[in-house]
Design brief:
- This protein is an alpha/beta fold and about 425 residues long.
- The strands form 3 sheets. Strands 1, 2, 3, 4, 5, 6 and 8 form a 7-stranded mixed beta sheet that branches. Strands 9-10-12-11-14-15 form a 6-stranded mixed beta sheet. A two-stranded parallel sheet has the order 7-13.
- About 30% of the residues lie in helices and about 15% in strands.
- Strand 1, helix 1 and strand 2 form a beta-alpha-beta unit.
- It binds S-adenosylmethionine (SAM).
- The site of S-adenosylmethionine has 21 residues, from helix 1.
């Protein structure tokens, strides 16, 4: 589409806005209940979003060609199943999307939600959403499309459900295919700033005690002898005989999964007693080595020479989590900012903006905690563009995600081929 108008519901800081603007769209309405998001949005796009959508009357929203909405996921009531779709969606924010679509009948709508939407309530949530949109007069693919920035080489693993809606009189929506075997290699360097480009670099650098604490875990991984790196959580207080475990007194009350991990930790210790005892003595001297920081979750696959500094790390309540060094785990709204092992520092807000494909001209919140939270809630701009182009009927994009282009064959084999 050359020129079009759109509305941005649940706009956050404007992931949809950025993409639609780049495609030539003009925003005529936005809303978000969060005042800090609204400030960032206005600062960047010159539009002051409305607040709570549930109190906005559909007739007060301007006419538009495209409706965009990254709506919060909520369960649908089981009671509603007997009452029909409108009743079933009432009380959820999806209902607000639906009432606005039913009133304005925009040509297109692009919605986004967490991956879990696809399987939520044994598929019922997806079915309600799908059938409600179809009943409202739209072509919608039968299966939810799950897509992540890392599928197209952007180094963030963030699987989300994308729902494309094309009003039935406008045209078809061809099935969308993606072949997981075609995921390209990702490089975190594509979004990293060089340290000299970060004016307040010290703010992001790991402190000497943090480096020493992580170094200790690195020595642990490099020092233990085992067939496979521990795929289970390593708990320093369980690196001992089971009977010496601090939890041994309550053994019978412990849940099964905890007993399993305690036993696995104990086995690891049994096979590496000498090394682990000496290592524990040293590690415990670091004042950070307690609580969650005395736990390790290696989630970076098998390697003969583990080196956490080549990986991405997160400090989580469950321990120091080590992930592959090629892409970042999904940005999240809570404070679990990733550590870039190679740089011995935390990811900066500008790098988070890049992970969500915002341009470097994007002005994020002055408070870093807000900026991290807002990028964690946001949508990847490049993916919005991709799905908008697909939905608008861009031939090149539709061809790229056709069955033939993705799987090299003319069409999907039918389940029941004609009998000879
Ligand atoms: C997943 S985020 C969407 C983020 C957005 N797509 C972006 O690019 O930043 C969902 C947003 O819905 C907003 N929200 C939740 N309840 C709302 C309501 N009743 N009315 C308007 N916005 C609401 C939240 O504040 C949050 O920013």
């Amino acid at each position: 589409m050359k020129e079009f108008t759109y509305i941005d519901l649940f706009c956050g800081i404007g992931g949809f806005h950025q993409a639609m603007k780049e495609l030539g769209g003009k925003c005529v309405y936005a809303c978000d209940i969060d005042a800090d998001c609204r400030k960032t949005y206005e600062r960047n796009y010159g539009i002051r979003p409305d607040g709570d959508i549930t109190v906005v009357k559909e007739e007060d929203i301007p006419h538009h060609n495209v409706l965009c909405g990254g709506f919060p996921c909520q369960a649908f009531s089981k009671a509603g199943k007997r009452l029909g779709f409108a009743d079933e969606t009432k009380g959820t924010l999806f209902f607000d999307i639906l009432r606005i679509m039913n009133y304005h009948k925009p040509e297109y709508a692009l919605l986004e939600n967490v991956r879990n939407l696809a399987s939520h309530d044994h598929g019922n949530t997806w079915k309600v959403i799908h059938d409600s949109l179809v009943n409202a007069g739209y072509n919608v693919l039968d299966e939810p499309v799950i897509f992540s920035p890392h599928y197209i080489g952007i180094p963030q693993h963030r699987e989300r459900v994308f729902i494309m809606c094309v009003r039935k009189d406008i045209g078809d929506l061809p099935p969308f295919y993606f072949n997981q075997e075609r995921i390209p290699p990702c490089r975190i360097e594509d979004i990293l700033l060089s340290d000299s480009e970060i004016p307040d670099l010290d703010r992001y650098r790991l402190k000497p005690q943090q480096i020493e604490w992580i170094d200790n875990w690195n020595e642990f991984l490099q020092g233990i002898r085992c067939d496979k790196l521990p795929g289970f959580p390593v708990w320093a207080d369980s690196l001992c005989a089971v009977e010496d475990n601090p939890m041994a007194g309550q053994w019978n009350q412990l849940p099964g999964w905890m007993k399993t991990f305690i036993k696995k930790n104990s086995e690891l210790w049994e096979n590496n007693k000498e090394f682990i005892d000496a290592w524990l003595e040293k590690a415990k001297k670091n004042p950070l080595f307690f609580g969650a920081k005395a736990k390790l979750e290696w989630q970076a696959g098998e390697t003969k020479h583990p080196d956490v500094w080549q990986h991405i790390m997160q400090i989580r309540p469950s321990g120091l989590r080590v992930k592959p060094g090629t892409y970042f785990p999904a940005l999240v709204a809570i404070t679990q900012t990733s550590i870039v092992g190679k740089r011995k520092r935390f990811l900066t807000p500008r790098e988070c903006a890049r992970l969500q494909s915002f341009p470097d001209s994007f002005m994020y919140d002055d408070k870093n905690s807000q900026a991290y939270k807002q990028f964690g809630n946001s949508i990847n701009v490049a993916l919005v563009k991709l799905f908008a182009q697909y939905m608008f009927g861009d031939r090149d994009v539709q061809e790229k995600y056709s069955f033939k282009a993705q799987f090299g064959k003319a069409s999907e084999p039918t389940l029941f081929p004609d009998m000879p």
